[in-house]
Amino acid sequence: MSQRIHQSKEQPDIMYKMSMFSHVIGNQLFHDINSEEYILLPHQNSLFDQLFNLTGPKNDFYSICSKPEDLKLTQKLFDDRVIVPTGEDETGHYYPFLVDIETNRHCNAQCLYCPQSESRKKKGVMSQDIFNNIIHQIKPYDIEWVAFNHYNEPLLDPFFTDRIIQLRENKLKLYFTTNATLLSPQVIDLLEPNDLVGVVFNLPSMEPEEWSYFMQLPTHLFEHTVHQMEMFIQKFSDKIELLSIFINGTTKNQDPRRQNIDEHFSQFGNVEVVNQNSHNRAGSISNKYINSYSHVNQDRFCGCERIAGHLHISWEGKCFLCCQDYYQSIILGDLQKNSIKDIMSSNEVKKLRGEIYGVYPMRQNLPCRQCVQLRKKRNVVSPIPY
């Protein structure tokens, strides 16, 4: 069991509820803070419908368990603090395990499914002093991965090599997302399997002209890009946890595009080729290649794990809302002035977390209201496409 939530002493007369961070997708129960996943038996999905609506002493929770395996699972939920005291203020609970660092803010592409195509960001590079401070602050936590992304191309960062070495020295793994146009033999030689938890290539098409159109890049870069991806896949296939190519741009030919890419790269190693639900990035982009989402007619919601367990840091060292906040419109604090704990447990952030998890009604002007990842209910049949 993760130690991310403090274990409190038992009180015999206390009333309980399901944690606001708990939710079910299909046959799995998730908790956004302890990052545990609980596999549900076929009959247990209906059990959780009851648990989500229940408030009472422990015996009330056990009384709805019809089978021994239900009792065992319910006891584990108490032990793991997925069922919590009703009087507990959960809005201050936070534990970062995924960290996005905007090491640079610019990109060489203007993909038509990315906000960079409509509102391009100017060049900006994170200083080594700010990066050093971030590494120092995140090191005490149990970090699963660090990414160098926020709508940028991380290989434009002049300190990329230095930062990889620094992650390696601090035993932090990189989740590497790139359009691969700047991938080179030197970068491929630099990276080692132990440096990486996952790699995602942004490649919308195997047709040079179509690729050029989607990426808004010169066609002559296509051949180099594909070749470097081939070399990378040959080196890292079966050696890292996740190796994927994402197919963005919602069009009628998205699946044929995926099939062509899959057929080509499968000969170089095991790589997952995935159609992506290109969406409006919480209202940051609107065109025919993306899907739009809006939640204007609902006041209370059921959460998003980003405000519970992710940390998003701008090139200036400021914490902002999340990866969907393209314009970084909601600044949570400055790591040059305050600690992660102080920022993410401040009264302002607690209120924001409460709005996202339905403790309070959500303000109309929050970008979350236009985000695909905001949960509208706690028990869904299948995950939201992303």
> From the helix content, strand content and strand pairing, which structural class follows?
alpha/beta
What does the overall shape look like?
globular
Domain unit count: 2
Q: End-to-end span in angstroms?
A: 28 Å
Order of strands across the biggest sheet?
7-6-12-13-14
The percent of residues in helical segments reads 25-40%
The ordered H/E elements are EEEEHHHEEHEHEHEHHEHEHEEEHHE
Mean pLDDT: 93
Provide structural commentary:
The chain is 28% helix and 15% strand. It is globular and about 70 Å long. The strands form four sheets. The protein has a five-stranded mixed sheet with strand order 7-6-12-13-14. The protein has a four-stranded mixed sheet with strand order 4-3-2-15, with helices on one face. It folds into two domains: 16-90; 98-370, TIM Barrel (Alpha-Beta Barrel), CATH 3.20.20.70. Helix 9 (254-265) links the parallel strand 10 and strand 11. The chain has helices spanning 44-52, 58-63, 68-79, 128-138, 160-169, 185-190, 208-215, 221-236, 254-265, 306-309, 340-344, 347-356; strands spanning 16-18, 22-25, 28-31, 37-39, 83-85, 98-101, 145-147, 174-178, 196-202, 242-247, 272-275, 310-313, 318-320, 331-334, 379-380. With 386 residues, it is α/β, with parallel strands linked by helices.
